[in-house]
Amino acid sequence: MTYLGIDLGTSGLRALLVDADGAPLAAVERSYAATHPRPGWSEQDPAQWIAAFDSAMDELRATQPLFTGLRGIGVAGHMHGATLLDAAGKVLRPCILWNDTRSAAEAAVLDALPEVRGLSGNIVFPGFTAPKLEWVRHNEPEVFAKTAKVLLPAAYLNYYLTGDYVADMSDSAGTSWLDVGKRQWSERLLEASHMRPDQMPRLVEGSDVAGGLRQELVRKWGLSGPVTVAGGAGDNAAAACGIGALDEGQGFVSLGTSGVLLAARDGYSPAPETAVHTFCHAVPGRWYQMGVMLSATDSLNWLARITGEKPADLTAKLGEELQTPGAVRFLPYLSGERTPHNDADIRGGFTGLSAGTTRQDMTRAVLEGVTFGLRDSLDALASTGVTLDKIIAIGGGTASRYWLKLLATVLGVPVQLPASGEFGAALGAARLGKIAATGVAPESVITPPEIQAEILPDTEKMDAFAAAHQAFRAAYPAVKSIQ
Fold first, then answer.
1. pLDDT, tens digit, for every residue of 390-410?
2. Domains of the chain: total
3. Which residues are catalytic?
4. Strand, coil or helix: what is 113?
5. Over the stretch 227-249, which tens digit does the pLDDT of each residue have?
6. Is 294 helix (H, G, I), strand (E, B) or coil?
7. Residue 281 and residue 167 share a domain
8. DSSP string spanning 319-367?
9. What's 266's domain CATH number?
10. 299, 302, 347, 334: which is closest to 479 by C-alpha?
11. Angle 474-478-480 (CA atoms, 0-180°, nearest 5)?
């Protein structure tokens, strides 16, 4: 028996085939792009997702004999995207993505309504789904009138797989339509953005059965038996499943395009005033909270582009010995910020530049600025009762040992680096597919990876970085005032 995990990302799709024990057999990737018709807009044609998925399946079928023994599929997807379908299941317009900020005004109106934060457990961020539909209602009324179903990206791929409109709790928690505590659609939240319950997909837990694979695909892929499709998960919940962050006290930090600090929770403890996200986990009876910054490695990539260097070369020149905070400060708000500021309009910048400033000084400042932003998220999480004694680090930024030492020192906890292998959203999705297909306990499948290294905080430099972090925080009101 084999199981398939799909990570439907913003820039591409990753398909991971694992064996009965969860060990990776093969992974294939396909890329696609978003479009940006206007400043602040970010859209994608769902047909690209299906084309990428079909192509990935063709490759796995051709190269992996064990593919025919497929028994379970899980899909993880980038959250918050609004895919609008008519009564016949036809896509009405390009999906409005998570990093689209056109609906900032609509989000502010919804966020100010009584009960909205209390029911959803979150601020209504501009990237969430509900304000996108309000924008469509205001600006594309003919599309809004034809909208029979609204699906998140992962739910749209589930629709392709099963023929049913079904979504999981973790992904749906980022819509501002879900009562996150009760894990059900809220009629009050739907009414607030002029939506109806019948426009929502059926809800299931991420580790439960969403449906069976359509017979057309079973025949096309030459499979030997029925295939179960799991509810799946939003990308960060799936990553938590892949890294084994299931119980209270377990968490990870992701140094990807965006920066995420996530903590699993055994109970529901929302604190929307902190801009912490409180979402359902992908398994029943659990939630997770996270702080999100929109430009993590993206900040380093930006510096690399304007200096003509590769990101890895910039960080390599810093060596591995952690230096005390530099005189140059960087505010990493290139695309706005969520936690803790919830400010789509703020932008980044350098301060403390001089005629003697070097490229290495600027690189250090970028790494420090991103890390201070993640410390803001840790402080916000701590205010909700989160305690993390250690954190697993994932994402492209973990290739820099300097950045890992900086991260451990600023966060004040050991940072663990997993051994090489699969531990991301695709693995988490495959694990959900196995749980749904076999009925095994989630705890027996969602386990932490082997750790290859643990980076401890540099205690001699912690006070200096704590002072630098306070100076970083003090800079926000000044930057805000000049917008």
1. 999 998 899 999 999 999 999
2. 2
3. 235
4. coil
5. 999 999 999 999 999 999 999 99
6. coil
7. no
8. -SSPPPPPS-EEE--BTBB-TTT-BSS---EEES--TT--HHHHHHHHH
9. 3.30.420.40
10. 347
11. 110
